[in-house]
């Protein structure tokens, strides 16, 4: 198992893990391919270490250092367990996560040669974000190396405020679940300029204007939810990007550096606080168990003492007047004065 991350001292030598998530078709795989190529071009000596966690991907467009498909055969899982496609993806990921400590060991071994470790996740976002295996992978990774979530959004599909809102709600739920530093990648900005999305996040009124122009049964809900999301937008990093042209790369790298800083300044201290709390709870539980044991011992020994006492009592005979207790004999040898 990889060594736990500590503050600044050794943080400099740890690569940054980038967990790429997003709705089906948002462009995750194309994004990972572009990011891998750009990082490799920027520093050929230190290319990113890339992992594919999608067992169902047919054609991988980038060279993966670790590929889930080498460990689990998704089609075999389907026939062996009699599952449908989504069940098989979930089960394959579950099987893979049981060996995740080996993945971490490999990453740790290669750490000195890489600045970034990129994870491509399954197309069906919920398979990763709401599964036990997804949580295990995310939590174990985040407690081992600095981890940042890159949430890929198809900005061309988000020009409708309702679709935009649904995507943002999903992003928000991942952020609150993982509490990890977060960057929203407004992908496909070569098709539609992402400026409108940034504006909607920064200015509540402009979003409401857009909602008002849309006659949808869900418009009222969108209006109410946008108030809730205002808080979420406050510290949100969002960047326009094109996985086809590479546009937005410099901005993305700045946001990743900033998110990595947040990992050390906010996420890690909070994680350590939680660990310390869990350790204290465990100590208290042990102390309570010990006290219960002591109480049981005392209760048992009182019981034993009482038993012993009654045994001792039974071995002591009833007290009766002595045979020598005869008034005549008592007078014997005693001078009587009439
Ligand atoms: N124009 C444009 N097209 C893109 C961009 N990114 C991805 N695409 C296209 O969007 C489609 C989906 O891209 P994928 O990378 O397969 O998306 P994905 O999220 O990995 O898909 P699943 O794993 O199936 O969920 C493909 O046709 C890509 O060529 C982009 O930045 N610009």
Please give the structural blueprint:
Layout: H1 8-11, E1 16-22, H2 28-42, E2 49-52, E3 66-67, H3 74-81, H4 85-97, H5 100-110, E4 116-120, H6 125-129, H7 132-142, E5 147-154, H8 161-178, E6 182-187, H9 195-202, H10 204-212, H11 219-234, E7 237-240, H12 249-314, H13 327-331
Parallel strand pairs: 1-4, 1-5, 2-3, 2-4, 5-6, 6-7
This protein binds guanosine-5'-triphosphate.
Guanosine-5'-triphosphate binds next to helix 2.
Family: Belongs to the GPN-loop GTPase family.
Subunit structure: Binds to RNA polymerase II.
EC number: 3.6.5.-
Core attributes:
about 350 residues, alpha/beta, Rossmann fold, seven-stranded parallel β-sheet, 13 helices, about 10% strand
Number of discrete helical segments: 13
Let me know the CATH homologous superfamily. Answer: P-loop containing nucleotide triphosphate hydrolases
CATH class: Alpha Beta
Order of helices and strands: HEHEEHHHEHHEHEHHHEHH
Which structural class matches the secondary elements? alpha/beta
Poorly predicted regions are 1-9
Taking all Cα atoms into account, the compactness measure Rg is: 35 Å
Helix content: 55-70%
| Total separate domains | 1
Describe the structure.
- With 338 residues, this protein is an alpha/beta fold.
- The chain has one domain: Rossmann fold.
- 56% of the residues lie in helices and 11% in strands.
- The chain contains 13 helices and seven strands.
- A seven-stranded parallel β-sheet has the order 3-2-4-1-5-6-7, sandwiched between helices.
- The longest helix has 66 residues, at 249-314.
- It is elongated and about 130 Å long.
- The structure holds guanosine-5'-triphosphate.
- Guanosine-5'-triphosphate binds next to helix 2.
């Amino acid at each position: 198992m990889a060594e736990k991350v500590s503050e600044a001292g050794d943080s400099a030598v740890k690569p940054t893990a980038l967990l790429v998530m997003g709705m089906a078709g948002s462009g995750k795989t194309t994004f990972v391919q572009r990011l891998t190529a750009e990082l490799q071009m920027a520093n050929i000596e230190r290319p990113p270490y890339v992992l594919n966690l999608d067992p169902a991907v047919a054609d991988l467009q980038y060279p993966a250092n670790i590929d889930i498909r080498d460990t689990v055969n998704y089609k075999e899982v389907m026939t062996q367990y009699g599952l449908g496609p989504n069940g098989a993806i979930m089960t394959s990921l579950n099987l893979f996560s049981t060996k995740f400590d080996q993945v971490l060991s490999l990453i740790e071994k290669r750490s000195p040669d890489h600045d970034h470790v990129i994870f491509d996740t399954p197309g069906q976002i919920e398979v990763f974000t709401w599964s036990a295996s997804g949580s295990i992978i995310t939590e174990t990774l985040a407690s081992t190396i600095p981890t940042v979530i890159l949430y890929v959004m198809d900005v061309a599909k988000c020009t409708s405020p309702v679709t935009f809102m649904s995507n943002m709600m999903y992003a928000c739920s991942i952020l609150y679940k993982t509490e990890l530093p977060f960057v929203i990648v407004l992908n496909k900005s070569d098709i539609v300029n992402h400026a409108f999305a940034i504006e909607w996040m920064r200015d509540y009124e402009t979003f409401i204007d857009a909602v008002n122009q849309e006659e949808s049964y869900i418009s009222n809900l969108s209006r109410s939810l946008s108030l809730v999301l205002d808080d979420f937008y406050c510290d949100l990093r969002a960047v326009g990007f094109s996985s086809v042209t590479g546009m937005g790369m410099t901005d993305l790298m700045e946001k990743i550096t900033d998110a990595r800083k947040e990992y050390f300044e906010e996420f890690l201290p909070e994680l350590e606080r939680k660990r310390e709390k869990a350790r204290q709870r465990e100590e208290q539980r042990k102390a309570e168990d010990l006290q219960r044991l002591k109480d049981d011992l005392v209760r048992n020994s009182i019981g034993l003492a009482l038993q012993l006492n009654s045994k001792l009592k039974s071995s002591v005979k009833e007290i009766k007047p002595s045979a020598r207790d005869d008034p005549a004999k008592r007078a014997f040898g005693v001078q009587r004065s009439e």
